[in-house]
Amino acid sequence: MANRLRAAIPGMCVTGVTGGLIGFFMGGLVWIIMITLVGIALGAIIWNLGGQRFFLWVTGGAVLGALMAIGLSDMEAALMGAAAGGSIGGFVSVNLGILKPRKSP
């Protein structure tokens, strides 16, 4: 069990930071802590279900979205660009997984 949690640290970090940012926008320390913990739990679950590629797409999308927002506007738009890029990266990852041909039994 400890090895599985240790292996899931990257996923826990991605969704934990995302949860913390959502909690920040909801307002207050209680929300930040509560939603960060929910994000960490979801990250561990998704990672252990084989979502490593999903997290790579989300992280790449967030970085590209932030860079594009900074290039088009200013630093204040970076957070919104990262959120939009991360969600699009997750969307692309899920759809690529759906379109991938399955092996017949």
Describe this structure in words.
The protein has helices at residues 2-7, 9-26, 29-48, 52-72, 78-99. The chain is 83% helix and 0% strand. The protein has 5 helices and no strands. It folds into 2 domains: 1-50, no CATH class; 51-105, no CATH class. It is mostly helical. Helix 2 (9-26) runs antiparallel to helix 3 and helix 4 (52-72) packs antiparallel against helix 5.
Secondary structure layout plus pairing:
Elements: H1 2-7, H2 9-26, H3 29-48, H4 52-72, H5 78-99
Helix pairs in contact: 2-3, 4-5
Percentage of residues in DSSP E strands:
under 5%
Helix tally equals: 5
What shape does the CA trace take?
flat
Structural class: mainly alpha
Average predicted confidence as pLDDT:
86
The radius of gyration is 15 Å
Helix content: over 70%
* Distance N to C terminus: 31 Å
- Main sheet record: none
Q: Which regions are unreliable across 5 or more consecutive residues at pLDDT < 50?
A: none
Number of domains: 2
Number of strands: 0
Order of helices and strands: HHHHH
Characteristic terms for this protein:
0% strand, 2 domains, mainly alpha
Concise structural overview:
The chain is mostly helical and 105 residues long.
